[in-house]
Write a structure and sequence with these properties.
By secondary structure, the chain is α+β, with helices and mostly antiparallel strands. Helix content is 20%, strand content 46%. The chain has a single domain, classed as Pyruvoyl-Dependent Histidine Decarboxylase, subunit B (Pyruvoyl-Dependent Histidine Decarboxylase, Chain B), CATH 3.50.20. The longest helix is centred in the last third of the chain and has 18 residues.
Length: 148
């Protein structure tokens, strides 16, 4: 299995437009996203995002937060743990929360999931994005499942 880990942020005239713009900033705004749970195949490989077919159906784990309160600090995080038997993904997000605390929370959750399954972590990757809302802002962090 191959995955890409992406993130994006942007503003927009409405909450939906801000979210759409953040998806576009991350490179996944022109596809239909299908939210999936948090499991990866054994020895999953992380690669850069490839060109996705416009309008295609794409599986992903998505962390997102949108705010229309100027000055809010919004953060989205995904944490990926890859093992030889399988892997796990978690997401976390928050408004006006310490980004380091959100990162630690995501790391702790994904480590617990792997420990619960008795799978040793070979690789741990965290993607975080933070934005200070100007008018209406959105951030997303995502693990995109690629067809290969």
């Amino acid at each position: 299995m191959k995955i890409a880990i992406v993130s994006g942020k942007d503003e927009g005239p409405t909450m939906l437009n801000a979210f759409d713009n953040a998806l576009y900033d991350a490179g996944i705004g022109d596809v239909n996203l299908i939210k999936v749970s948090s499991m990866l195949e054994a020895n999953t490989e992380v690669i850069p995002l490839t060109k996705l077919k416009l309008g295609s159906m794409v599986n992903c784990v998505l962390s997102e937060i949108t705010s229309d309160n100027p000055g809010d600090i919004i953060t989205a995080v995904v944490a990926v743990a890859i093992g030889e038997e399988l892997g796990c993904v978690v997401e976390a997000s928050g408004i006006n929360e310490n980004k380091e605390d959100l990162i630690k929370k995501a790391e702790s959750m994904v480590k617990y999931m792997m420990e619960k399954r008795n799978v040793e972590i070979k690789e741990l990757i965290v993607e975080e994005i933070t934005h200070t809302v100007e008018n209406i802002g959105s951030v997303i962090a995502s693990v995109v499942y690629l067809d290969y």
